[in-house]
Design brief:
- One of its GO terms (molecular function) is prephenate dehydrogenase (NADP+) activity.
- Pfam families: PDH_C, PDH_N.
- Belongs to the prephenate/arogenate dehydrogenase family.
- The protein has about 280 residues and is an alpha/beta fold.
- The chain is about 50% helix and about 15% strand.
- The longest helix is centred in the C-terminal third of the chain and has 24 residues.
- It is globular.
Length: about 280
């Protein structure tokens, strides 16, 4: 469990890693960070987001009780594989990846027996990146998902729940890797695919002075990190392709009501979507 003297190490000071660090520091915990960009480290120290930072320091790894990988999914696997030899016995390691297939199983297969990897996913973010946009308040209206497997202990699950509570997440739940990636394929990966497709449907840049809130809201997440999201899409491509097929089918259903002048059928679609969307209002 997390104690007052628990030492955290954030590997990768991006938006989520930086926001984690900020929230933990506010709650009085010691937070170190390893980040390849020295400017990000300098910013985080100057703004009291972390206690110490380095482009690489083995001592940070050796001293950490809880290590959080804020790296891309494949990089997380590689980093843990390479540096687990320095982990403190009893250390707990987690990640922030939005896809778990190709991450959880490979890590748990090679992880040392005297440490534990338990995956988690903060369902929070912004359409910007980098520690300079760190903001722990994004967690206060967000969901936190823990992904325990047979390799994980009850204590590790309890520690991750405590971690989420410290950061102020509004809801904490548990899913299997398969359940998570199926769910995220719909609520996140498909929505990003739709936003990207909408922006690429035609050259709509000339409409910038005329669009309203609906277009801006629908395409906010189209401002996307091409390296990260290409990796995420391919890791979860089976679920995403299925969701795209289902979405195309539903769009064709709506299209058919128009082609057939089916006023009542179109209204029913609107009524159903309104009822379902109200469940998400807070």
């Amino acid at each position: 469990m997390i104690q007052e003297n628990t030492r955290f190490l954030i590997v990768g000071l991006g938006l989520i890693g930086g926001s984690y660090a900020m929230g933990l520091k506010k709650n009085g915990y010691h937070v170190d960070a390893i980040e390849i960009n020295q400017l990000s480290i300098d910013y985080a120290i100057k703004h009291n987001i972390i206690d110490r930072g380095s482009t690489f320091d083995i001592d940070y790894i050796k001293e950490a009780d809880i290590i959080i990988s804020g790296l891309y999914p494949n990089m997380t696997v590689d980093w843990i594989t390479t540096y687990q030899k320095y982990f403190k016995p009893g250390a707990l390691i987690t990640d922030v990846s939005s896809v778990k297939t190709g991450v959880v199983e490979p890590i748990q297969k090679i992880i040392r027996r005297d440490v534990e990897f338990i995956s988690s996913h903060p369902m929070a973010g912004k359409e910007v990146s980098g520690v300079k946009f760190a903001d722990d308040s994004i967690f206060h209206i967000a969901n936190f998902i823990i992904l325990p497997t047979e390799s994980n202990t009850k204590e590790a699950v309890a520690t991750m729940r405590q971690f989420a509570e410290i950061l102020g997440f509004s809801n904490i739940s548990e899913l299997t890797v398969a359940q998570h990636d199926e769910m995220i394929g719909f609520v996140s990966h498909l929505t990003h695919a739709i936003a990207v497709s909408l922006m690429n449907t035609n050259d709509n840049t000339h409409l910038v002075e005329y669009t309203g809130d609906s277009f801006r809201d629908l395409t906010r997440i189209a401002k996307i990190n091409e390296n990260l999201w290409s990796e995420v899409f391919f890791l979860n491509k089976e679920n995403l392709i299925r969701e795209i097929d289902d979405f195309i089918q539903e769009v064709n259903h709506l299209k058919a009501t128009l082609e057939q002048d089916d006023v009542e059928g179109l209204k029913e679609l609107f009524i159903q979507s309104t009822a379902r969307r109200k469940l998400f209002d807070r």
